[in-house]
Write a structure and sequence with these properties.
Chain A: It is found in: Cell inner membrane. The complex is a heterodimer. By secondary structure, chain A is an all-alpha fold. Chain A has helices spanning about 1-20, 20-50, 55-65, 65-100, 105-115, 120-130, 140-145, 150-165, 165-180, 180-190, 195-220, 225-230, 240-250, 255-285. In chain A, helix 2 runs antiparallel to helix 14, helix 4 runs parallel beside helix 8 and helix 11 runs antiparallel to helix 14 (about 255-285). In chain B, about 50% of the residues lie in helices and about 15% in strands. In chain B, helix 2 packs antiparallel against helix 11 (about 270-280), helix 5 (about 155-170) crosses helix 6 (about 175-185) and helix 6 crosses helix 15. Classes of the chains: A mainly alpha, B alpha/beta. The interface of A and B includes residues 133, 142, 147 and 251 of A.
Chain lengths: ~290, ~325
């Protein structure tokens, strides 16, 4: 019992030195709120007022357009493909990095961060270079009649690449801060690897996972740059919601463009709420029951 | 856990189903920016015609963007059955770089494969407050000119060449004078959008600039649909004859087995109905009868061709728009 308590004590001390005094916290909150009002609420209000400029009937009409519906379907499909895959890879990568030590670990972390540091346009072009007709695999794919870019698979791939870091990046610091004592204890008591993960690790990180998933999802649905490069902009086939917004805007169909944009804005709002809740829960789970002062 | 996986899989299937079951003929027309409204109408007319002729339903998909960018996408594998781009050079590139079409593609359809022509005119704000009448007025200090980037936009290249041709055709005009004229013109350009549509939006929606160099059809679209009474079209004394060409992409239609319908689609652009639709959208029809009927729509002005003034598109592209070409030097050094 003795070693565990000392560990808890050091963990608490570590947390104490990271959190700020109350005054600083309120200043930060005020700054954040001001920032949100300026950069989120104001544009949001603009989007909705523009969207409803011609009334509800026109708004619903714009959303019922076949090309828009197909764009919404494609965006949902992309998110449904990308989020579970990145959830899986993210958890595996975070588990590996936080709970084990091995050579090349920092390199792996850098690799996971790569999509953050690369411009989305470049992320798209990578796939054109690989799968394009003039690219490495292009002629072979053509011969076998497999379409990757300028088709749905390319859009999914590009989105997958861009959204890759979200879950892992969220979980790594969380899992590292939790240490591996609990897992070690579970293993000593005879739990199998999977049992340890589902009974010990998972309950600790579930809010972190939700947070990562929601961010990953928001980006998957909102990604413009990378998808624009590989989409080919075929109407009703390879346009996602953000691309559809651009098309409508360029067709002088401003009310419809903003109506479709309002879907993305709503997504942003939902994301924000879930994110806030998840953040709060993470704080709680990190603080732990014996940290109450 | 497995229940969720099953749910996700069935959801995937549900989303994919529509793409799996569609069996009718599908054509993809990869086009440039300002033809959106034209092909919306034309595709409807052609589907009707094709249905009546063969009782086959046809879906025509459209992709629009800057002409150069669209050509690049076809080179990289965008499976276009037909391309309808802003200028021959962008289709030449598809022939040269990807070998998807034969080099003599432009000889396969009448009128250099251009079913309609157009030209470059000026769009100014109501009442023409800066008194812009001709190209000379664009280089006056204090006049802001909106034109897209010739590197990415087909329309912008026509704009540039029209200005150059005008300066060259003036009394005592020379290459050096033309270059000086175009340099001064681009000094008056505050922002280069990537496509013709973006430039129109900049001028109309964001209220930037005093004059927009635009496709004739784009200018009339702005006048008639975007703000009735807020803009005026100014026709310069001389402009360029723009010939936006069309072609079937041979390798694609042969693979997809759509050659017959794709060729018919392009031929239908030359039919009376196709020409009517083009004229209604302010593209100059090549058919004499239709042109005569719509003569009032299209003001008369001196039109020069790329072939006669610049020795063809390949030459024009090399001299003016390639990396390190004249445009790079005047736009980089002009500011």
């Amino acid at each position: 019992m003795q070693p565990a308590t000392t560990h808890k004590a050091t963990a608490a001390k570590r947390n104490g030195s990271v959190s700020e005094p109350v005054a600083v916290r309120w200043v930060l909150i005020a700054a954040a709120l001001l920032f949100l009002a300026l950069f989120l609420l104001l544009p949001l209000a603009a989007v909705f007022s523009q969207a409803l400029e011609k009334g509800w009937a026109a708004y619903l009409e714009a959303l019922r357009d076949p090309d828009t519906i197909s764009a919404i379907k494609l965006t949902l499909f992309t998110a449904v493909c990308c989020v579970p895959l990145n959830l899986f890879f993210g958890i595996v990568a975070a588990w590996l990095i936080a709970k084990f030590s091995f050579p090349g670990k920092s390199f792996l972390v850098t690799l996971i961060d790569l999509p953050f540091s690369v411009s989305p346009v470049v992320s798209g072009l990578i796939y054109v270079l690989i799968f394009g007709l003039q690219g490495w695999l292009g002629p072979w794919l053509q011969a076998h009649d497999i379409r990757i870019i300028f088709a749905v698979p390319g859009i999914v791939l590009a989105t997958l690449f861009v959204t890759f870091p979200f879950v892992a990046r969220e979980l790594i610091p969380l899992m590292e801060s939790q240490g591996r004592d609990e897992e070690e204890a579970a293993l000593t008591l005879g739990a199998s690897g999977l049992q340890t993960f589902f009974r010990v690790t998972f309950p600790n990180i579930k809010w972190g996972i939700l947070y990562g998933v929601i961010l990953c999802n928001a980006r998957a649905m909102g990604e413009f740059g990378a998808v624009s490069v590989v989409s080919g902009h075929v109407r009703g086939v390879t346009n996602t919601v953000p691309l559809q917004v651009e098309i409508l805007y360029n067709e002088y169909n401003y009310a419809a463009a903003f109506a479709v944009a309002s879907i993305l804005a709503l997504l942003a709002l939902v994301t924000l709420v879930v994110k806030t809740v998840a953040e709060w829960k993470i704080q709680q789970s990190l603080a732990g029951p014996d940290d109450k002062r | 856990m497995s229940k969720n996986v099953f749910l996700a899989l069935s959801l995937l299937l549900l989303l994919f189903l529509p793409t799996l079951v569609q069996a009718n003929v599908e054509l993809l027309n990869v086009s440039y920016d300002p033809t959106r409204e034209l092909y919306q109408d034309f595709n409807r007319a052609f589907s009707r015609y094709w249905k009546a002729k063969t009782s086959q339903s046809i879906t025509i998909r459209q992709s629009h963007g800057g002409s150069g960018k669209q050509g690049r996408a076809v080179i990289d594998g965008l499976a276009a059955d037909v391309v309808t781009l802003a200028l021959a050079y962008d289709i030449d590139e598809i022939a040269d770089q990807a070998r998807l079409i034969p080099k003599n593609w432009q000889k396969r359809l009448p009128n250099n494969s251009s079913p309609y022509t157009s030209t470059i005119v000026f769009l100014v704000r109501k009442g023409n407050p800066k008194k812009i009448r001709d190209w000379d007025d664009l280089v006056r200090p204090g006049v802001k000119v909106i034109t897209p980037n010739p590197k990415t936009s087909g329309g912008a290249r026509w704009n540039y060449l029209a200005a150059w041709a005008y300066a060259l055709k003036q009394k005592g005009g020379s290459e050096a004078k033309a270059r000086d004229f175009v340099t001064r013109l681009y000094r008056n350009v505050p922002v280069l959008d990537s496509g013709a549509r973006g430039a129109t939006t900049t001028f109309v929606q964001r209220g930037q600039g005093d004059v927009l160099l635009a496709w004739e059809n784009e200018a009339y679209l702005a006048v008639n649909e975007l703000g009735k009474g807020s803009y005026e079209v100014v026709v310069p004394s001389l402009s360029i004859l723009a010939e936006p060409p069309v072609t079937v992409v041979d390798k694609v239609v042969d693979r997809k087995g759509t050659r017959k319908v794709a060729e018919e689609y392009l031929r239908y652009l030359y039919s009376a109905e196709g020409q009517e639709i083009a004229a209604r959208h302010y593209y100059r029809p090549v058919d004499k009868a239709v042109a005569a009927r719509y003569a009032r729509r299209f003001p008369k002005l001196t039109l020069v061709t790329v072939d006669s003034v610049f020795g063809g598109w390949k030459q024009a592209q090399k001299t003016h728009f390639s990396d390190g070409g004249i445009f790079d030097r005047i736009y980089g050094g002009g500011r």
